[in-house]
Design a protein that fits this description.
- The protein is an alpha/beta fold.
- The protein has a single domain, classed as Type I PLP-dependent aspartate aminotransferase-like (Major domain) (Aspartate Aminotransferase, domain 2, 3-Layer(aba) Sandwich), CATH 3.40.640.
- It is built from 13 helices and 15 strands.
- The chain has an 8-stranded mixed β-sheet with strand order 1-9-8-5-4-2-3-14, with helices on both faces. It has a 4-stranded antiparallel β-sheet with strand order 10-12-15-13.
- A hairpin with a 2-residue loop joins strand 6 and strand 7.
- Helix 1 runs antiparallel to helix 2, helix 4 packs parallel to helix 5 and helix 9 packs across helix 13.
- The longest helix has 32 residues.
């Protein structure tokens, strides 16, 4: 059956080509290989975490250059697992307790901040710099307090923050570092992949991201203790570390004595962490395995699209164009633009581009402290500085797509429509 289906897919499947006047901001890019893997995994009938997932995790961790990778069901879950793992009693004095503080960014995606709130910690917000859109590290010292336990930053739109400097700050002050790498898969800082510097790092496989598994994400680390805790948190909180479908890996399944449970209580039903079921399926992982073959080319195409778009937009005085962080090679998720002309309406410009089939997005939550859920829930937080650039981003910043399906003809069309818009304003 698989041979027949494979032949049909190879003969009949043709990747869709985007018209020159349709420019989505993001999207998945795939061919028959993903479909063949998906059908193969389906016909095997296992479906939950299995051999495809093991291959995907191994290939992913080798690509990043870390010792451990753990797939989960979304990038948001990856962030939740990472910071929730740092509340484990196994971490003794370094564990994050309720009321402790985590330094993060006001300008970013909500699910970087929400797990901090979820564990009862206090987000401490610092501003970002424009035009890198990454953390303003001059504020780190002022953000530090006796309650600080961790730093949790995203590499904004694929542009790495100065992660070696942040790593040193964390080491000097006995803090955890979590890299939200969801928008930056393939980015490099000083020749190393982002996601390889933190105690934990995370990524997303949502269709808009660098590779996709339909949904999904991953948590990765070089720390064996943190990996074991994270796996327990992902797998219901159980103490057992057997792979799905396997029993008695420890050889002591019915001889453990933990907690106040009777001796010999089945180790598969002993829970040492507060956990959930956040696993990825083998069907998703099969797609991810095929995507890993394409990832290096995807990264290079994103870089090329970014460079080309920047070169043809350099004469637009109405915009502040993005800049990569010094010593970095971003794997760009998008092309952020800040409007420099106060007379221009961002909403009108984005509406014009939408009418011309050009996708745009805001820089996520803007300044998150102004979001309705943040205000309505009176979420405890601390602010360092005045968040001026975060407010600017909230009011004046948007981004364009550079994902691999876009060709130079699409980017030329974007610039043509921008020029037409500004010409009509004169």
């Amino acid at each position: 059956m698989l041979d027949k289906i494979t032949k049909i897919i190879q003969e009949d499947y043709k990747p869709k080509q985007l018209p020159s006047d349709v420019v989505p901001v993001s999207g998945k890019v795939y061919d028959e290989k993903e479909l063949i893997n998906l059908v193969s995994a389906s016909l095997e009938g296992w479906w939950t975490e299995g051999k495809w997932n093991a291959e995907f995790e191994n290939r992913f961790r080798r690509y990043i250059g870390v010792n451990y990778a753990l797939t989960v069901n979304s990038g948001s879950s990856a962030n939740l697992v990472a910071i929730h793992s740092l509340t484990s009693m196994k971490l003794d004095d370094k564990r994050i307790n309720k009321g402790d503080e985590v330094i993060t960014l006001a300008a970013g995606f909500p699910t970087t901040v929400n797990p901090i709130i979820n564990i009862g910690a206090i987000p401490v917000f610092i501003d970002v710099e424009i035009p890198t859109y990454c953390a303003d590290l001059s504020l780190l010292k002022d953000a530090l307090s006796k309650k600080t336990k961790a730093v949790f930053f995203a590499h904004t739109l694929g542009n790495p923050f100065k992660v070696e400097e942040v790593r040193k700050f964390c080491d000097d002050n006995n803090l955890w570092l979590i890299e939200d790498n969801c928008d930056a898969l393939g980015s490099e800082y000083n020749g190393k992949k982002t996601g390889s510097f933190g105690d934990f790092a995370t990524t997303s496989f949502y269709p808009a991201h660098h590779i996709t598994a339909a949904e999904g994400g991953a948590v990765f680390t070089n720390n064996p203790q943190l990996f074991k805790i994270a796996r327990s948190v992902r797998d219901w909180g159980r103490d057992c570390w057997c792979s799905t479908g396997h029993d008695n890996s420890c050889g002591k399944r019915f001889t453990w004595k933990l907690g106040n449970l009777p001796k010999g209580y089945d180790h598969k039903y002993i829970y040492s962490e507060i956990g959930y079921n956040l696993k990825m399926t083998d069907l998703q992982a099969a797609i991810g395995v095929a995507q890993m073959d394409k990832l290096p080319a995807f990264v290079e195409k994103r870089r090329a699209n970014f460079d080309y778009l920047r070169s043809i937009m350099k004469d637009f005085q109405q915009f502040i164009l993005p800049e990569p962080t010094e010593n970095s090679r971003p794997s760009w998720f998008g092309f952020p633009i800040t409007i420099a002309d106060d007379s221009l309406s961002r909403a009108d410009l984005m509406a014009h581009l939408a009418q011309k089939n050009i996708g745009t997005r805001l820089l996520f939550a803007g300044n998150i402290i102004h979001q309705p859920y943040f205000i309505d829930n009176k979420i405890p937080h601390r602010i360092v500085g005045d968040l001026t650039n975060s407010d600017t981003i909230m009011n004046k910043t948007f981004w364009l797509g550079v994902y691999p399906a876009l060709e130079q003809r699409h980017l030329d069309y974007v610039v043509k429509q921008l020029s037409a818009y500004f010409g009509d304003l004169k």
